[in-house]
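Reviewers of the previous submission asked for a worked example of the structure-prediction workflow described in the proposal, so we include one complete record here. The input consisted solely of the amino acid sequence. No template or homolog information was supplied to the procedure at any stage.
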Amino acid sequence: MKYSGPYKNILDWSKRYKIILGIADGLLYLHEICQRRIVHRDLKSDNILLTENFEPQVFIRVIIEN
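From that input alone, the workflow returned the following C-alpha cells.
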C-alpha cells in the first residue's frame, strides 16, 4: 500500500532504521541490563511511542505483585 498524502516522506528508511535500532536497544535493556525483572506480555507496535525526533520509547505497564 502506498501513501500519497502530505506526510508521505515523514518516515524515510533512515528514520525507520533509527526506530528499529532504538526498539532493539530498549528490549536489550529490559532483558539484559535492567536490575529489576520485567515481564512484558503485551509488546506490540501500539506500545512503542515516538518522540518528536522519532526516538522510540518502549511503553510497559508495570504490575506490582505482593
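The helical segments are 13-33. We consider this example representative of the routine output the project will generate in years two and three.
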